[in-house]
Amino acid sequence: MEDILFYIFAAASVAGALLVVTHNNPVVSVLSLVLTLFSTAVLFVFLLADFIAAIQILVYAGAIMVLFIFTVMYLNLRKEALAFDSKSVPIKFGILFVILIVVAYLSSLGFKRGLQITGEGTSTSTNFGTVEGVGEVLFTKYILPFELTSVLIVVAIIGVVAIAKRRFN
Amino acid sequence: MSISEILRSTLLIGPEISLILTGIILIIFDPLINGKRKNELFWIVLIGLVIAFLLNLERLHTEASAFSGALSLDVFSGYFNVIFIISSFFAVILSREYLITMNLKSNEYYALILFSTSGMMMLSSAKEFMSIFLGFEIMSISVYILSGFNRESIRSTEAGIKYLILGGFSSAILLYGIALIYGASGTIFLDEITSKFDVQNPLYLAGSALIITGFIFKIGAFPLHQWVPDIYEGAPMTVTGFMSVGVKAAAFAILLRVLLEGVYQMDANLIYVLWLISAFTMTIGNLGAIVQKSIKRMLAYSSIAHAGYALIGVVATLRGEEIGLSSVLYYLFAYTFMNLGAFGVLAYLSRDGKECDNYEDVSGLWSKKPLIAIALSIFLFSLAGLPPTIGFFAKYRVFLSAIKADFYWLAIIGILNSVISAYYYLRVLVYAYMGEEEVKFPSFKPASAFAITVLTIATLILGIFPFYSWDFALKAAASFLPN
Amino acid sequence: MVVGVEHYLVLSAILFIIGVFGVITRKNLIIVLMSLELMLNAANLAFVAFSRALGDMTGQVFMIMAITVAAAEVAVGLAFVVSIYTHRETLDIDVLKMLKG
Predict the structure, then answer these.
(1) Is the pLDDT of residue C38 over 90?
(2) Which residue of B has its CA nearest to A116?
(3) B435 assigned to some structural domain
(4) Residue A159 belongs to a domain
(5) What one-character DSSP code corresponds to residue A166?
């Protein structure tokens, strides 16, 4: 059962990603990106990362995508403003697919050789991937990066104000 | 990690905290003060930087580890912090009048410079990839914003977004590389990665290659240097000066840390890859600089070339030549003074919202502003590597380290490149001393004049008496290479 | 685990390459930013997959940090997009041309 679901959501995320980079209408692109992020969130559940899956949906597929949608709507972008250069599309696609197949093959070889530690189903503690488990690591071992994110967010806030604020004379 | 360990560690990162707090104080007080007095918060910035400098002195003779090994507060990081604090100190002073000339808001600008500096300081001491990544992003995102800070200018805004996209691209590559290394080793601490490193494992090789690519981008070295001219040209002058010294030094700091402590054994061929990168970076930077019509763009290409010279030292270090490391450190230190000075002079000469950009804009500088002309010539002599300036000594040390490590060809390529570079640096001076066009120069700017004077004196004095500062670089290198 | 971890990793490599393709070929700034998100998301998937394979929480914590960075980058990027659009009513930008300098 899990393997069928894996392939369904993996296919959905790849399809969404391809739509993001190929579609001319930005609204469709944004929604496809939501599809990709949501499918990835489902895969996170299979990987026993429940809390991360929730964050992915709330923050990534939710908040960040709302920003994108807002900007697309605010700027009222027309389709032609975004057109792909249609002549070179088949060539670009050909190249993309060749690259994708090569990457899939090479990475499967590389990962198989590289992952010596893989225990299929390594035993995990009971709070692996839960809020408790993540919080315990986040607030002890990785407290410094956690504090640094606050600086990063302050920088982003100042930046957005400095760049986008209108100047009233 | 216990609470007491967290408290102990927090006390150890005083310099970083003082910069972040100063930035936050600026943002809080900015809306509370009206009118022209807003500009006076400038003094708080300087006080914050001086406090950070004083707190950092502690790091120059002690060695400590904080946050259970995430930060290594050694002489190496203290040395780089000195470079970062000096570059942001002078960038702030030079910006004071430049911001008024260009009609830009000052306090957000200063706060971003401070945050960016704190990110660089994280990079110089971090030994764990999560802090490295976040320090990298704090530094980068602040600099993206600073590049696009002049909203009225389309060139500046475009430089900002271009830098953001290309920088975001490189940090995504960096992140993927970290993921591969994490998967192969099961840890993100550099020490543990070193002990588990396995050359046979493709994940290590792919991961380290991606990580090094991310850093090479920030350095602006050969295959990924093309963004440099456009973005350096579009960004406000003082920001260009700041990022050409600060961001570059930070990227070198983390590249050295990851190469020497993390993936040292990566591959014997890595030396030759870096050899090629170094040679191409120098040559392409110099050839690009010759044909430029704008001084700012010429200096952008020259900063690519200087990254190439500094990489010579990295190559020599990888060959096990200890003097190579200290020569890179010294080169970055020297470059801070001379390059910031050169951009400072251009910022000084900007007036009425227009930047001093083309060669014609400095025409006749000698007859109207002789002191500024002398300062400009000292900085350009130093960049060209002529004695008795700091640039000469730094280049001499770098080439010497290449010769000691048996990289004769690299040293020869470097020397030839320095000879070529003299042409375009001196061309600026030809305009400044012999140009006859009528150009209006701005009236006296006290703060910038002060900064330029100090930088000029440092460039000269450290060039004539380099030994104290060179010992300092030796000490930093020795603390880093325990063997 | 029914599905081996390398399946997830191959998927993440594919998503990463699609993101790279988008950044390089698309001209529209918003799409380029979204392609950057795809790349970061692919790296996140790799982190979480490795975290499961290793039975170690670090990968999941790293993913939270990566989301924060992505959010900050997007916020600043979209602010630039709005600013550029008000300047010149187009969002065309050619990353490959940019790389030619």
Answers:
(1) yes
(2) B184
(3) yes
(4) no
(5) P
Q: What is the ipTM of this complex?
A: 0.93
**Looking at the domain that runs over C5-89, which CATH code has it been given?**
1.10.287.3510
What is the CB neighbour count within 10 angstroms for residue B202? 18
Number of residues in chain C:
101
Give percent of chain C with pLDDT exceeding 70. 85
Give me the mean pLDDT over the B137-164 stretch.
90
Segment B376-397 shows an average pLDDT of 89
**CB count, 10 Å around CB of B225?**
27
Residue C59 CB burial class (10 angstroms; 0-12, 13-18, ≥19): buried
Nearest CA in chain C to A102: C14
A85 touches chain C (CB under 8 A): yes
Q: Is the pLDDT of residue B119 over 80?
A: yes
At residue B156, does pLDDT exceed 90?
no
| Chain B hits for C98, Cβ within 8 Å | 162, 165-166, 226-227, 230
Element housing B71 (H / E): strand B71-73
The reported pLDDT for the residue numbered A94 is: 73
Compute the average pLDDT of residues C25-43.
90
> Which residues constitute the domain of residue A52?
1-84
Percent composition of chain A: helix, strand, coil (DSSP 3-state, to 5): 75, 0, 25
Are B381 and B464 in contact by the 8 Å Cβ rule? The answer is no
Cβ <8 Å between C49 and A123: no
Residue to test with chain C: of A5, A19, A30, A75, most C Cβ within 10 A: A75
- Out of B67, B133, B141, whose CB is closest to A155? B141
Range of the domain at B334: 291-483
Q: What is the DSSP letter of B198?
A: -
Q: Name residue A106's amino acid.
A: L
Domain boundaries, chain C: 5-89
Q: What is the CATH number of the domain that holds A59?
A: 1.20.120.1200
- Residue B170 lies inside a defined structural domain of this protein: no
Q: d(Cα B64, Cα B435) in Å, to the nearest integer?
A: 55
- The answer to whether residue A169 scores a pLDDT higher than 50 is no
Q: Is residue B198 part of a domain?
A: no
- With beta carbons under 8 A apart, name residues in chain B contacting C76: 141, 144-145, 164
Rounded average pLDDT over B157-167:
90
User: How far from B287 is each of B284, B383, B425, CA to CA, in Å?
Assistant: 5, 15, 13
Question: Which residue would you say has higher pLDDT here, C55 or C75?
Answer: C75
pTM, to two decimals: 0.93
Most B CBs within 10 Å, among C12, C33, C44, C69, to test the B interface: C69
The average confidence (pLDDT) of chain B is 88
pLDDT at B367: 82
Which of C 3-42 lie inside 8 A of A, CB atoms?
A: 3-11, 13-15, 17-19, 21-22, 25-28, 30-31, 33-35, 37-38, 41
Of B164, B175, B176, the CB nearest to C76: B164
- Mean predicted confidence (pLDDT) in B239-266: 86
Task: Let me know if residue A107 belongs to a domain.
Answer: no
Is B105 contained in some domain?
no
